[in-house]
Amino acid sequence: MNPLPRALVMAKAPVPGRVKTRLGHEIGMDTAAGLASAALLDTLDACTAAFGADRCHLALDGELGAAVGGELIVQALAGWAVTTQRGDTFAVRLVNAHADLAATAPGPVVQIGMDTPQVTAQLLSAAAAALGIEGEPASSDAVLGAAPDGGWWVLALRDSARAGPLAGVAMSTPTTCTNTRAALTAAGLRVTTTTTMRDVDTVSDAVSVAHEAPDTRFARAWNAVAGLV
User: Fold this and answer.
1) What DSSP designation does 190 have?
2) 197, 123 Cβ separation under 8 angstroms
3) CA-CA distance, 73 to 134, in Å (whole number)?
4) 3-class secondary structure, 153
């Protein structure tokens, strides 16, 4: 039997001045950190619902003790495995997080960040299903979900040990998704795509995402501060 998929969340502790700095320049760093905290909580909830807490992993940059909403985040992480990100660049930290997971829990993984609070358990499960897990034939080795800004919001891998090609991909550029797909393909992986989804970097993004997912913590947090914008 094929192993069940696991979730891997890459996140920064939502400390003012360390997260959502583009948004922070528009609305203030403290407010932006509060929104980042809400977005992370929404993401953790979706992963837990999709895979179960015992199959969820957080690779964290920073300390939750200094984070906005840190206590709530710790509560939401009950049953999760939490590791510290390693590496000088985000691409290297991403590869290392996948390698750390593969060393303890090899098999399929669905990796996501903390910038898409509108994500649902159904969307995460759909990315996993495209890998052909749970007895279904494999249709791909990797699944990418693009973001409109040229990045990507989700990467599912049939083998969590095969993230190495990402180390050479420049992140946070208009061609990150295209270059990620090219790197994975060059390494011999069959790559397919899933739903495109906006991540939250600006006020415009926040407005759109809060409207799209009005029942999320993020939407409630945004609505509480929207009058300040």
Assistant:
1) -
2) yes
3) 30
4) strand
